[in-house]
Amino acid sequence: MKIGNLILSGKVILAPLAGIADTSFRLVAKKFGASLVYTEMVSAEGLVRGNTATLRLLYFREEERPIGVQIFGSHPENMAQACPVIDKLKPDLLDLNFGCPVKKVVQKNGGAALLKDLKLLEKIVLAVTRSSRIPVTVKTRSGWDQNSLVALEVAKIAENCGASAITIHPRTQKDDYSKRADWDIIAQVKQKVSIPVIGSGDIFTPQDAKNMLDQTACDAVMIGRGALGNPWIFSQTNHFLEYGEQLAEPSLEERIKVCLEHTALSVKEKGEYIGLKIMRKHLAWYTMWMPRSKELRSKLFVLETLDEVKKAFDEYLLMLQKECQMI
User: Fold this and answer.
1) 236 CB-contact burial (10 Å; exposed 0-12 / middle 13-18 / buried 19+)
2) What structural domains does the chain harbor?
3) Is 100 designated active site?
4) 0.85 surpassed by pTM
5) Nearest of 258, 197, 267, 269 to residue 233 by alpha carbon
6) How does pLDDT run across 187-229, given as a tens digit for each residue?
7) Partners of 223 in beta bridges
8) Would you tell me how many other CB atoms lie within 10 Å of the CB of residue 114?
9) Can you tell me whether residue 94 is helix, strand or coil?
10) Shortest CA distance to 39 belongs to which of 53, 52, 22?
11) How many CB atoms lie within 10 A of CB 178?
């Protein structure tokens, strides 16, 4: 798959997950075979103002490549002015978010709110494609609500304004995540535009990914929620798409090993206190399906050092071994 001048090694991409997809998470996803990763969603206005916290979200390591930066905003001028700031860091792609359904974003006319004003959306895409030195992509939902499905119109705008690819998440802003994604919308877009189309929504297994590719003819799939606590989905999906066979699920020991590696990366990047605090949600996802998970999480969430986390997992495995011996 080719996006602008960028050639991807596979068809499975990590979604730009706000508050989740930091460097440590992206590195784990890359290790397991994500062919492209994105930063967390970044405010264009914050970049233009030089906000330190916003600028920090642009940070990435060379081993994360290829990587895209995703920005949001509602003012064409700010979106264009953010491009030189991003270009200095030389990511591989710049993605425009027209799909975020979160209230604090849409209240500022950003994210999915722009699906109600396609003329403004077009001005933004045109301003950014003219200002960016790297390929520009677009991520959108299918519309604001079921009475205004505009994914195809957005895709046409993106194509005509010089975007190099478009990602379709076929739910409306009003749907949030409560309704099944309508993959037919992805298929309709793919039939009508010549730029690559990436499908997103309800991919939780390798079979889901293959089904989306087969049913929609999209060029790649983007995985978000399906990767939470489950980076194996990238290697499993790549293997399934290439060989048509399912890899075995990781063992309990393997899950704990990768969880600890992820935790160590987070601590290395952000320090022990912040790194462990950020990891709590990930620890919940990694341990969700483990035996006695509620008891395990209650211990993990109050720990303050990486060594304590390692010790807690060692004690957990020892407890399970003793329980098995008693049966």
Assistant:
1) buried
2) 2-243 (3.20.20.70), 252-326 (1.10.1200.80)
3) yes
4) yes
5) 258
6) 999 999 999 999 999 999 999 999 999 999 999 999 999 999 9
7) 14
8) 27
9) strand
10) 22
11) 7
Q: How far apart are the first and last CA of the chain?
A: 52
Q: Is 245 exposed, middle or buried (0-12, 13-18, 19+ CB in 10 A)?
A: exposed
281 by Cβ neighbours in 10 Å (0-12 / 13-18 / 19+) ranks as: middle
Instruction: Name the catalytic one among 83, 100, 161, 218.
Output: 100
pLDDT tens sequence across 115-127: 999 999 999 999 9
Pairing, β 12-14 against β 6-7: unpaired
Which amino acid makes up residue 33?
G
Longest C-alpha distance within the chain, in Å?
68
Match 């190099």 to its residue by tokens: 164
Residue whose C-alpha is closest to residue 200's, from 214, 218, 188: 218
Phi, psi of 281 (to 5 degrees): -65, -35
262, 28 Cβ separation under 8 angstroms: yes
CA dist., res. 234 & res. 29, Å (int): 7
The single residue listed with the structure tokens 């002015």 is 81
Q: Which residues of 209-230 are buried (b: 16+ CB within 10 A; e: fewer)?
A: bbebbeebebbbbbbbebbbbb
